[in-house]
Specification:
- It is a single chain.
- Strand 2 (43-44) and strand 3 form a beta hairpin.
- The protein has helices at residues 15-22, 24-32, 53-63, 80-86, 98-110, 116-132, 135-144, 148-161; strands at 36-38, 43-44, 47-48, 69-71.
- The strands form two sheets. A two-stranded parallel ribbon has the order 1-4. A two-stranded antiparallel ribbon has the order 2-3.
- It is mainly alpha-helical and 171 residues long.
- It is globular.
Length: 171
Amino acid sequence: ETTGGVNASAARIGERELREIHLPPVKACVDAGVSSFMAAYNEIDGVYCHGNPWLLTELLRGEYGFKGFVMTDWGTQINRTEMILSGHDIYCGGFSAEEAIRAEFTNAVKSGNITEDQLDVACENLLKYILKSNAMKNITATNTVSDKAEKLQAIRQAGAEGTVLLKNDNN
């Protein structure tokens, strides 16, 4: 429903249309036990979906009872602090050194922009998934492999095993 069919443009819909047409599949996924969601780029009522605490926290986690993790889309327009405040657990917005990420979160906590508890929730949501899936087996395998080629193969295998392809049979 985005303007001109452009991924990052505004969706010209209100809450009623959102709830009646667009959110039932989301609710069905939550009820089926899906593990993760990726937030959209587009905006609804002037708020980007990936920066919308009402959509990601109040509705998805609160009203729908979603227990998994939420990630940003690549190239998101929000920073890591906004990510936490909006209800995401994983930031997929670009390449950063581990030290830079740690410094960004440390500064955000020290300045009072986010709390340690908010960071803990994001980490817990992701770790719960990792521990209940086979992902930990694959992560451990990459840490015990010393050859770069073998490590890349283990990472590719973990990615392939974690990929879900959806097919729409019979509408």
